[in-house]
Structures are given as C-alpha cells and as structure tokens.
Amino acid sequence: MNYKYRNSDTDTDMNSLQSKTGIRPERPGISGLGGWLILIQIGLWVSLVLLIADMSQVNVIMDPARWEGVRGVDPELYTKGIRPLLWFGVISSVILLIIVIVNLLLLYKKKKQFPRMMIILYIANVFIGVMTWIMIARIEIPREQHVLDPTSAFNLTIRSLLTCCIFIPYFLKSVRVKNTFVK
Known about the structure:
This protein is an all-alpha fold. The protein contains eight helices and no strands.
C-alpha cells in the first residue's frame, strides 16, 4: 500500500477541517494503540511504577547516617558532593513522574500533544542521564570510599540515547501515530 500524503485534494479538505474543528482528520492507514505503541504503553507504566518506588525511598536515600555510618563516607564529602547529587535525583524524579503521568493521560485520551510530550520525555531522560554522569564524575571520592560509580549513569545515558534514536523518528514519521493522536 503506497499512500500519498501531500499535494492532493484530500489534503486541502483535511487541512480546512482541522482549522475549523481543531481535530486532525484521520488519514488512510492504521490507527489505534496497537503496534509499537504497545511498547510505549508498557514503558510508561513501568516508568511510573519505578519512579513511584524511587520516590518512596527518598527518606532512606537522603539520610546522611546511611552514607556516613554504613558506607563510611566523610561528612564533608557527603555535604559537598553526594547531597547535591541526591537532590538532583529527587527533583529529576519528580519532574519525570509528572511528565509520565501527563503522557499516560494524553495517550489514553489520544491527544495530539502526546507525541511531542513523549519526545520531551526522551530528551529529558538523556539530559538527566548526562547531568548525573557529570555530577558523579566531578565528585572526588577516595578509592577506599568508592561509593559512587559513574558507569551506571553512563550506561543509562547510552540507553536513553538509543531510545531517542529509535522512538523519536517513530513519533515523527509513523502513520499510526498520526492517525491515532488527532484530538
């Protein structure tokens, strides 16, 4: 099936319909929350659960006694290096949680803002991964206290970049996405 989407009479009719009603008309082809959008849904729900689990552990993670007593981190190192990193993690988790909840609402209401918001979520994940990696790398930790490893932040950043490379073009080019998110 080869569909033309530009320079046709139906495009002019569809564009005039969109400007009058605010709803983008459906183009020929597939639509609905199937296909690759199933992976998007699963990813959003898993992200929601993981972010809620992270947020439930904030008191434990932010406790200085956990870092100074159990892990033997110098109090000055905790104050200057680890605490700002932890606060960045909490704030970024709250922001991501809000974006994920908004994206789930937009997804199931089939709003046309959903693809744009998913792209924002993917870019935010990359940005947060890079910032975390930089912040961990800047903290000077003596070898005997080796409590933070930048490798996991680096791996997270690479995974986020790969996700962007796969799903941003999908949201920009997919016929299913264009047909599904029209409200």
